[in-house]
Amino acid sequence: MSFEEEMEELESAEDFLQYFQLEYEPSVVHVNRLHILQRFHDYLQQGDASMPEDETAKRAVYSKLLMRAYQDFVESDAQTEKVFKVFSMGEPQTAFVSLSDIKT
What we know:
Layout: H1 3-9, H2 13-19, H3 26-46, H4 55-75, H5 78-81
């Protein structure tokens, strides 16, 4: 299997961390798994233009970026990191609609 094919087989944050043989605290991953994977994806996209062609070098870059994504949530939390749009939307907006504006 190629590196890309192996990556396609991985499903969870734990799968990725185990694949790259990275040590992790299960309690951190349990609470932040989607955030870690999204941050990993974001880091990969940021460095996409400079990604090495060589599989061994590419594997090393992926491992480093995954560990960086994981560490973000060891040192911080999901609300502070604001990985998903919902965390950076600001305060809820309120609107007034009078009964006369509602048409049946």
